[in-house]
Amino acid sequence: MIKKLHLQGSAKEIGFEHGSKGKQEVINSLETYEKLFYGFKKISWSEAKEYALLHLNAIEKYDLQMVEEMEGVAKGAGVDFEDILTLNARSEIALTNKGNIFSDGCTTMAITSPIINDTIIGQTWDWTALQKNSLLLLDIQAKSKPRITMVTEGGIIGKIGYNSAGVGLCFNALITDKKTNEIPIHLGTRAVLNSYSQAEAISKVANGQMAASASFLIGYDDGDGNGMAVNPEVSPYGIDYIGGDDGWLAHTNHICSSSLKSKLKDLNDLRYEDSILRKKRADQLIKEGVAAKEPINEKTFERWLSDTFNKPSSINHFQNENAPEHRKMETIFSIIINLSNRRALLRIGQEGEFEEIDTITELTL
């Protein structure tokens, strides 16, 4: 299904285990992004590394342990530190104005109080089929931080998941015309998962700290039956919250914030026939479920994330043969996270059963 790695210790030790035990997945990621950067943007790998190094000073000030963990990954996998840094800055490199701009897609959804007692978040992750062989399921126990369950690409130390404190993250790429040399958004996702509360998580991505733009759907359950989900669109210009006042959220891959639209240009060339339609379909499914007063639970999310209405540009996404080559993507995995129960379900690919990936309670480190 997916390679699972249990990682613990110092930042360098966690990184080394990631790199050594997940070496093939790291190599797969390096090969994929070298092809993508050159094929779509005419950027060589050496040029990509130069772009990535522009972020290093900001990362060192933001969280030096992230640098140490990436150093560990590089040593474990037998590659250069700059290679791993480049993987973690791959969205920022993809968002440069040279060549075809490309980025991964997805549909995120959340349901919480007052609709249901639990806080459940979930998403599809749509990207190039090449990266299906790069997936890793990481169980991370760092010193003085919550325990993390995360699905990521080999070599990338931050992505989608949840932690033992009840903080969870789903993530949508946004394609815009501006970026800075601040913190790559994938490192922002790790900072969120390192947090003990929703407020702490938001503080890690607000105030223009992120180098590029993205939608961070951040759920939180405090363990006492209190839960909430918020959806900040983050950017180099700060954040803006989107929806959520009625106990549900949905987001895809276009900017929704009027405030951010005044500062950024949305460059998603398929937003009308793909991203916006997926968002409207996700809204429709949630509203139908709420109106029917049906029980909404993990099974409901399985159905929603498997939806093929408007195929191939459906929530469960299939390659669109009419799309430009750099925008052909499919659902690589789908994940459902019940933050109230600290459990998650995962499906690799577009078909088959969702399987539980409860790493937080299955093993005591």
From TrEMBL:
Highest taxon of source: Bacteria
Domain Peptidase C45 hydrolase, first and last residues per copy: 117-351
InterPro entries for the chain: C45_proenzyme-like, Peptidase_C45, Peptidase_C45_hydrolase
Pfam families: AAT
NCBIfam families the UniProt entry points to: C45_proenzyme
Name listed for the protein in its UniProt record: Peptidase C45 hydrolase domain-containing protein
The organism of origin for this protein: Siminovitchia fortis
Species lineage: Bacteria, Bacillati, Bacillota, Bacilli, Bacillales
